Structure formats: C-alpha cells, structure tokens
Amino acid sequence: MAKTEIRIGGLGGQGVILCGMIIGKAAAIYDGKHATLIQAFGPEARGSACSAQVTVADQVIGYPYVKQPDVLVLMSQDAYTQFGPTLKPGGRLLYEEELVKVDQQLPAGALTFGIPATRFAEELGRRLVLNIVMAGFFTGVTGLVSAEAMEQAVKASVPRGTEDLNMRALHKGLEYGRTAAQGN
Amino acid sequence: MRLEGFPRPLTLRDGTSLTVRPVKRGDQPALLAFYREMPQEDRLFLKDDVTTESWADRFIRRIERGEALSLVAEKDGAILAEATLYRPRHGWSAHVGELRVAVARSHRRRGLATSLAGILVKLATDQGADKIVVEVVENQVAALRTFAKLGFQQEAVLRGHVKDIRGARRDLLILANDVSHIWAAMEALVADSSPEVH
Predict the structure, then answer these.
(1) Are the beta carbons of A13 and B192 separated by less than 8 Å?
(2) Pairing label, strands B131-137, B96-103
(3) Considering its fold, how many domains does chain B have in total?
(4) What is the ipTM of this complex?
(5) pLDDT for B45-73, tens place per residue?
(6) For A19, which residue in chain B has the nearest alpha carbon?
(7) CATH, residue B144
(8) Residue B147 located in a structural domain
(9) Is residue B167 in some structural domain?
(10) Can you give the residue range of the structural domain that contains B110?
C-alpha cells in the first residue's frame, strides 16, 4: 500500500471528525503506519457541512490534503453532492444509505457500499454512535486498518463509561462491512 | 431488544459463582418460586403481588414490549436475585428509568444487589436513559449503601409513605442517579465544531 486517501463527510453533530480521528489513530498508533488528519468545519456547531481528510500510508506523508480520495465515507446528501464527483475512478464509496441517495455522478468503476448506520445506532440505544458504526463499516469494507487497531483506537477515544456501547457499534459496522465487501 | 454479553458469570465476594442473564418467556415458574420463597415482609416494597401467575405473565409481556429490562442471577436453575429497570416508552419521563432489585435472603450481603444494579445502570445508560431512580424505605440501610456506591443520591422524601408489616409508617426515599453526563461527554466529542469557537 503506497498511500490511501480518505475523505469523510457529513453534518456537524454526526461525529465526522471523530470518525476520521479514530481511523487515523488506529492506523498510526496501533497499526504502525503513518496517518494525517485535516478537518474542516462549517460556521455552526450543528447541522453545517463538515469533513475530515485522512491519509494513511506506509511511508512518511508529505502532503496531507486529499484532492481525489480512494475512499469516501459519507453521512449526508450534501456531502455526497459535494464530494461524490471527487472520488478516484475505481474508488470506494461508503455511505449512510438512509441519508444518502447515490446517483450517476460517481466516476467510472466506483464501488458503492451502503449501511443503515443511523438505524443501527438507534437500535443499539444511542444515535450518537452513528459515526462509530461508520468507522466499523469502513474497517470491514476496506481492511485498511486492522479490527484490533480500531478497537484500541475507539477505546482510547471515547469517554469513560461509553466504551461498551461504542464497541458494540464498532462491531456492528464491522460485521456489516465484511459481509458487504464479500458481496461486492 | 436482544441483550449482548449474556449470560455472564458473576462471582460474589464470598466466592459463590452465579450466572446473570436476562429474564425470558418461560421463566415465570422460577420467578414465582423465587418470590414465593421470599418473606412477606420483604415483598411489601414491591408494587405488585409478585406471587401470582397473572403478575408473572404481565411482567414477561412488559419485558417483551421493551417497557422493562430484567436480569436474574441464578445457580443450578434457581433464581437467587432479580433486578428490573422499568422504562416508560412515552411521555415526559421517557428518559428516566426506575430500578428495583430483590435478592434472596440466603444471598444478601455478598455484593449481589450492587452487581446486578450496576449492570442495569450501565445497560440503561447505553440504551438512552439519562436518569435512573430507585425507591428505598428509610430503614433499608444496606440498600441505601448499595445505591450510594452506584452514584445514587437522595432526591425526595415521601413522609410516612409506606407501612411496614407491623403497621408502622416510614418515609420513602427517592434516590436518583443522573447519568446524562456520561453521554454528554460523547455528545461534545461528536459535535464537529471548531475548537476555535469555544
């Protein structure tokens, strides 16, 4: 693996940045790779567009900005409209299927993987863990970071007392992602 | 709702090994045996007559409807403790859970109530409860100590609200544990707001 560029997009309050941070932490701290994170916020704390750019590589990363991602993780229609066309040809789109409608604007050869992450999070008990479900889904589909590294990154990133539910959310997304990857 | 991580082993302070699992349909006879064995004095704090089959059926239906989350601790198929968290599905207190714990006299003072209540508090918190309340009679010293250990604090007193088996009126204490702060920290983490605006 030379370098993988990832963009995570959604709305403020969905945990977009934390999702990116956990992926980067898993790669850099627990899988021994290199990773960078760039975050972009809207002016409002909630509901505005926000995105995270994560780069994961085996080598030192000289340029951290993501222009044409290999992997897109999207949690809102606005994020899809904005970032969908930037996906690298043959790249992978992972999306929250009840919040994002995929159309024809994707580049040729794009692989798409949907997950009802919000519903899963609600069924687990807290809508707040949507981003952790997505992080697990990312791991299951891409295999870019190990499940063990993600588990450690989640445990190290979430508040005390919330670890169990966050781990269940991670595993829910992970299993769904592995199944989706096999079927694609 | 299917609970993950059960059945799970539980070792009491004295080394006794038990199994904790959610209550399920078919448990009615074992539940009735547990409560019928319990002295009437100990059953007075319960709001229902838990020795009747109609109660056991209603209780299982409430669990199946998601209105109650109930765990039992058992050994060799016999229930030794039962703890339930009631969650209203509608209304302005849907964020509040009400806890109740009953332990067989033979297994008290070994940390069993604390363990079961602790598991339920954790499950309730994960499932969206912001506050958990429990009713304790003023002279239930062990129960007061148990819930204090779990973070419950006295929030209200209903004077002379209960009558014990000898007819003496006693105060009923409402203890509460506001667990919303646990997930408030997570909420702040997923806010996706710029650190510069804080």
Answers:
(1) yes
(2) parallel
(3) 1
(4) 0.83
(5) 788 899 999 999 999 999 999 899 999 99
(6) B190
(7) 3.40.630.30
(8) yes
(9) yes
(10) 8-192
